[in-house]
Amino acid sequence: METIIGLGKAGCAIAERFAQYPQYEVYKMDVGLKRSPRTYGLKPADSPEAHEQSVGSLKKFFKDVSGDILFVVGGSGAISGASLRILEQIKKCTIHVLYIHADYELLGETARLQQRTTFNVFQEYARSGAFQRLIVADNARLEEILGDLPIIGFYDKLNELVVPTIHMVNVLSRSDSIMDNISPPHDISRIISYGLVDFESGEENLFFPLDNVREKVYYYAQVKANAENTKTTYGIYPTQYDQDYVYCVAYSSRIQENNS
Q1: pLDDT digits over 70-91, tens only?
Q2: Domain of 71?
Q3: Residue 242 placed within a domain
Q4: Cα-based distances in Å from 201 to 58, 73, 250
Q5: CA distance 40 to 28
C-alpha cells in the first residue's frame, strides 16, 4: 500500500491522514478540488451513474502510480459511483480497497441504497480477485470502540483510530519479528477488517463485525482462546513505545451483511 488514493469527502480525509507518514504517496479525488499532480477535481453530478459517466481518462493523473494501491472510499455517497471507472484505469496495480461503511441510522433512504449497492459490488469484485483485499471499517463500530465523542471533530477521531492501525500493521508486516508463525492467508480470504486487542484482557475489537472469520493474524500479542475453525497466527515485534499494543487482522471469504 505505497500509494493511497482517496475518493470523495471521506476518502480524501482518510488519505490526508496517511500523508503524515513518509511511506505513502497520497492522491485525492473529489468534486471541487483544484487539479494538481496529486489532486483531481471531479465534475459535479447528482447521481452515482452521473459520477461514473463523468470520469474521463486518468492516464496523465495516474502516470506515476504503480505497485500496491490503497483506494479509500465511503460507500454511501453518490460519488462512490465513480469508483469502478477509476479503478479500471489502474487495474495493472495491486488494488486494496478501504471501504468506509457509514452508520446506517444516520443515512437517508437514497444513501442507504447506495451503500448497499456499493458494498455488495465491492465484495463481489474482491471475491473475484479484481481486488487483492477489501478492508471494511464501520463508523458505528468505530464509535462504539472509542466511546463518547464530540460532534466537532467526530470523523477526525474515527480516522485517528483507523489510519494508525492500518499503518502499524503495514510496518510490522514488513519488519523482523522476535518470534512468529505467520503464514500468508488463503487466497479466497479477501474480505478483511483490522482491529485492536486489549493486551491485558484479550478482548478484541474489530472495526467491522465480520461473519465467518476463518483466519486471524495478531501482531504483538500472545494468542489466547479463539473461535473453533479459525486459523490463528501471531508475530511479536520490538518497539520504542512505552506500552504494549496489540493489533489484529481478521479474514473472511464470505459475503458480509449490509445492516442498511
Answers
A1: 999 998 999 999 999 999 999 9
A2: 3-169
A3: no
A4: 48, 33, 18
A5: 6
